[in-house]
Design brief:
Oligomer: single chain
Order of helices and strands: HEEEEEEEEHHE
Shape: globular
Strand content: 35-45%
Number of strands: 9
Helix content: 25-40%
Largest sheet: 6 strands, antiparallel
Number of helices: 3
Distance between the termini: 42 Å
Number of domains: 1
Strand order of the largest sheet: 1-2-3-6-7-8
């Protein structure tokens, strides 16, 4: 825990358009991959990508490994991720995945169990089709 606290104390914050970035370095992770950097990225309400728009802000964690970029989010009940060769591609994959998941759940609303219904409610507050 102390190591995590120290890493976050060493973060540097940047602001670029609607994306705020805080950087921290972490050590090795599974399968011999090395995490070069971990970023916390805030995507502001109204952020648009393709057919999707955020109805509320979204905090994501971006991990840059030696082989790819992974962006993940942990919402109230939804855990989702996107991957790509660049941060932009990984964020686009994540946003698209969240929107497609929302639409998939919406089409099957009557058959959903409690957990999936919570996911749908959370996603309805987060993302909308433009």
């Amino acid at each position: 825990m102390a190591t995590e606290t120290n890493n976050f104390l060493l973060m540097r914050s940047l602001r670029s358009g609607d994306i705020e970035v805080a950087q921290s370095s972490f050590g090795p992770v599974g399968l011999g991959q090395w995490v070069r950097a971990v970023y916390s990225i805030y995507l502001a309400k109204g952020w648009q990508l393709g057919n999707w728009q955020l109805a509320s802000g979204l905090l994501v964690a971006l991990q840059q490994t030696t082989s790819q970029i992974v962006v993940a989010t942990w919402l109230e009940t939804v855990e989702e991720y996107g991957i790509g060769a660049t941060p932009e591609e990984a964020i686009a994959d994540l946003i698209s995945s969240l929107g497609e998941y929302k639409e998939s759940l919406g089409k099957r609303r009557e058959q959903l169990g409690p957990s999936a219904l919570r996911d749908l409610v959370c996603l309805q507050k987060l993302i909308e089709r433009r």
